[in-house]
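Thread: "does anyone have the structure for this chain?"

Original post by V.I.:
We have the sequence but no experimental structure in hand. Need at least a predicted one for the grant figures.
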Amino acid sequence: MARRAKGSGSIVEVKGRKKPWRAVFTDDFGKTQTQSFRTKKEASAFLDQIKTKKQTGTQILKNGILFSAFLELYLQEKQKQNMKPSSYAALEQNMRRAEQDLGQMPLDKINNDVLQALINQYAKAGYSQSILKKTEDQIIAMLRMAASKGYIPYLPVFDIVIPNIPSKRPSKLNYFSEEERRMYEDECRRTYVPAKYTKHAGEEPLYHVSGYKLLLILHTGLRLGEAHALTWADFSDESKTLTVNKNVVYVKQDGEFKKITQDSTKTTAGERVLVLNKSAYQDLLALRQQHEEQTETLQRRKEEALREAKRQFSGEALKAKNREIEEQYKRYFAEHKYICGSASFPFGSGSASGIQQTHRRILKHLPFDHNVSVHGLRHTYVTHYYIHHCNDPDFDLPTFSRMIGHASIRTTMEIYAHLEMVLNNSIPRTEADLKDF
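Reply from O.Q.:
Generated one for you, C-alpha cells below.
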C-alpha cells in the first residue's frame, strides 16, 4: 500500500487485474469508496482531484459558505454535464449577474424574501420575464445542490411571483410571412444550368446544397439539432411519419467544440412522432434521392479503390490492402444513414454550420427587409399552422403543443398565440366581413 498525506486517501495494488491500482478515499457522505486504474499515476492524479475538491469545500465552509464561493462549485458541476456551449454561457451570465448582488451573502441567508427582492429589482431594471424566470430557477437549483451536499441545513420554501412585464417585441418577428415563405421555398428548390464542359453538363443541379434540408425544417417545425440527428430508420414511408427522439448538441471538450448525438431530445416533450404534410413528404423524397445518389458514389469509389489496389499490389499485400479498404468503406456505409447528412464524401453526419451558411446564402438572394434565423423556420411553421388550423373543429391545443415538442401549453400560447392578433391587424376587411354585435 502506498501511503499519502492524511485525509487524501490511499493507493492499493491488487495484482492479477486489468486495473491493478485501486484508489481508496472517503466521499462527501463519509463513506469509504474505491476506484480502480491501470497505472499508479492515474490513481494518484484521481486522489489529488479528490483532495483539491475537499480543500475547496473546506475553504467554502471557512468563509461562511458565501454565494460567490459556492457559485464556482456549481458552475464546475454544470460544466461536467455536457451542456450546450450557448446554454452554459447563458447560465453563467445569469449567475454572474446575480453574484453582483448576492455574492457576499451566506447561502443559508438566501430565502424567499431575498430572492423575490432580487427578481423585483431585475424587473424594474427592464429584464424580460424569461430572464427573471431563469434566474429564479438557477438560483434555486444551486441552493438545492448546496443542501444535498450539506453546505446548508435545508432548502428553503420558495414561492416567487414573476412580475408581469409588457412584451417588447420587435416590429419584425423571427418568421416569414406567407409571401416571404413562398419566395424562400422557391429559392431553396432553385437549380442552375452548369457550363457545357463540366461533369454536370446537360443536368440542372440544385443551386443550394442544403436547400431541401432547410425545407424539411420549414415544413415540419423541427429544431436544427433534431433534424441533424434524424436517420432514415426514423422515417416510415408506409405511415408517412418521422420519429423524433434524438438531438445533436455541440459541447466544449478539451478546448474544442465536439458534436454529440444524444439519445433524447431537448426536452422530454420533444420526443414525438410527426405525421408529415405533403410538402414535408416531398422534401423527404428529394433528400432520399440525394441519399441514393451518394450511396452509388460510395459504391463506385469503393470499387475504384479496389481496382487501384489490384494494380499496385499482389499476393499478401493485396489481401491486406483489400481488407483495409473493406473496413474503411464499411465505416463509411455505417455512417451513411442521416437524412440531413453531409453533402461531401464520405457523406456522414452533417454540420449545423453548413445548413446555417446555406440559409444565409439563400437570404442574400431574396429582397427581405428583416433577418430570419434557421430557428425562425420553426417559428414560421408553427405560426402559420396555428393561424390556419386553430379554428378547425378537430384542432386540439394540447395535441398541437405536443406535436411541436413544447413542454407545456403555456409555452405554446406565450410564443405563438399572440401572432394571431398581430396578423389580424394586417388583414383587409370590408363592413360585410364584420360579425354582428
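V.I.: this helps a lot. Strands lie at 10-13, 21-26, 32-37, 235-236, 241-244, 247-253, 256-262, 272-275.
O.Q.: and The radius of gyration is 29 Å.
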